[in-house]
Write a structure and sequence with these properties.
Number of helices: 1
Structural class: mainly beta
Strand order of the largest sheet: 1-4-3-2-13-12-11-10-9-8-7-6-5
Order of helices and strands: EEEEEEEEEEEEEH
Number of strands: 13
Distance between the termini: 17 Å
Helix content: under 10%
Largest sheet: 13 strands, mixed, barrel
Oligomer: single chain
Length: 216
């Protein structure tokens, strides 16, 4: 069985992740590195009102290196799949539209060179690259790639677009430990893409990695 993510909020059409409205303030989510299901690893994500927004449930018997992002109706929005590449730190995490992993991916997330031996603890350095993929479903992707800087281990990192604008941030949540943190997504940025980047970062730098099968 493939691990799935089940949001309880509306999203746009298949393959087009919902974005934070451009005429409103940033979207702030609370991310908990724990599944609500027994004997599962994963994430539970709430909005600013305390409503459940996303879930990630990874069963111990699941051997696939992917998770699927679902909307409230059970329709797939994004799939995040690890692609192993020979060479130290060369693996990529590919983001696909819906469950169509036979189509070209939308984005590729890769660990930055200075973090290929672990780490993830330094601040102010590039820790991961998020690049749009050519030939993606639905035509050419708008905009360029993203850089992730900071420290995921400290729950303090920022996603910058090609113009060096901060479009999403992982922030620590006071007095609750590192397993609960905030994800702040700026207007106009795809919220589900930001969550997909968090999933990839957790596999690169999380200790321990919650989706254990991805690390094998």
């Amino acid at each position: 069985m493939t691990a799935k993510v089940h949001p309880n909020v509306a999203v746009t059409c298949l393959g087009q992740p919902a974005a934070a409205p451009a005429d409103e303030g940033p979207v702030t989510l609370t991310v908990w590195r724990k599944s609500l299901l027994f004997n599962c690893r994963g994430f539970t994500v709430f909005d600013a009102s305390g409503n459940l927004v996303y879930r990630v449930d990874s069963y111990a018997s699941d051997s696939r290196a992917e998770v699927v992002l679902m909307d409230a109706a059970g329709r797939a929005v994004l799939t995040v799949r690890r692609r192993k590449v020979i060479g130290l730190g060369a693996d990529q995490w590919l983001v696909y539209p819906g469950e169509e992993t036979r189509l070209p991916p939308l984005y590729a997330v890769k660990r930055a060179a200075q973090y290929m031996r672990g780490g993830g603890g330094g601040g102010g350095k590039s820790m991961a690259h998020v690049a749009p993929c050519s030939g993606a479903a639905g035509g050419k992707r708008a905009g360029g790639g993203y850089e992730v800087e900071g420290s995921y281990l400290r729950r303090c990192c920022t996603v910058y677009d090609e113009r060096r604008r901060a479009v999403a941030e992982v922030r620590p949540k006071e007095a609750v430990g590192s397993d609960v943190f905030r994800l702040v997504v700026q207007p106009g940025t795809e919220v589900s893409l930001a969550m997909a980047v968090v999933l990839a970062l957790d596999q690169m730098f999380g200790k321990p990695s919650l989706l254990r099968s991805w690390s094998s």
